[in-house]
Specification:
65 residues, mainly alpha, 1 helix
């Protein structure tokens, strides 16, 4: 009777460990998703700034001709 109870206890423990690891992976994936979104916004802002600067530079070049 000892071995079957030990097997059930170890099975439950294994499922509990997998659950904890699954929760950790979920939390880290959400954190990574937020970080990617934040980085994407920063890249978009930098692209808009670069476009504005290039437009201004092109306008300045046209006035010099």
């Amino acid at each position: 009777m000892f071995w079957p109870m030990l097997a059930v206890a170890l099975g439950f423990l294994g499922i509990a460990v997998l659950g904890v690891l699954g929760i950790k992976v979920f939390v880290e994936a959400r954190r990574l998703g937020r970080q990617v979104a934040r980085t994407t916004e920063r890249i978009q802002q930098a692209a808009e700034d670069l476009e504005r600067a290039a437009t201004g530079l092109a306008r300045t070049g046209e006035t010099l001709r």
